[in-house]
Amino acid sequence: MNDKFLTGRVAVITGGNRGIGRATALALAGAGAKVAIAGRNQEKLAETMALLEKAGADAAALTCDVRDEAQVKKLADDVMKRFGAVHILMNNAGTAIRKNVIDFTMDEWRMLTDTNITGVWLCCKYFVPHMKGQGYGRIINLTSIMAHVTSTGRGVYSATKHAVAGLTKALALELTEDKITCVAISPGFIATDLTAPLRADAAKNQALMDQTPMHRWGEADEIASLALYICSDKAAFMTGNDVLMDGGWCAQ
To answer: Which of 126, 136, 157, 229 is catalytic?
Structure first.
């Protein structure tokens, strides 16, 4: 495979300012793609943008709250003005609250569903029309092991990720004629800045590692490598899948 096999492609990554989104932005840029990262935290956007520029990438950092339809529409318009096309959409923005289902407030329920479900739908609604007619397209939706299992305190989060898995299958079927594939990635426990507090708690970290068959945390670069493969021509026959990368968690 040519190291620069994404030359001429434009990728949009929501939640691209940190963690898995940042790692994927750097991986796709390394393969030659032009990259637009979107997020709410301007400081983190600037940090990731500096890394992309250092790597020599043609990139843009754009502020967007995926819960807001007007902001998502503007994001799509801005990407088209800046790059003139979009070929790859990675819906990575997401949030979580640990609380039992019936203890959620309406505001908490809406925050999770608006970010994790509606945000994915809005990005597809406004970006997919620009992806049609090019003979190539990739949509990558970040789900979670919680799209396959659940646990106490994770019920609502799990429900949102099950919904994204369903959207992924539906989009895969709807977009086959346009040669746009849609694949979900379900990460297990990944070492990022967001999981740093959990890793810093010795007892909780050990309990989690004891429950993970590979007895280690996954790395953001490992998820990025999978995303990179999905974007390649080698994965052109792959669509509607939800790919687990969880250290064996869901095999138990």
So the answer is: 157
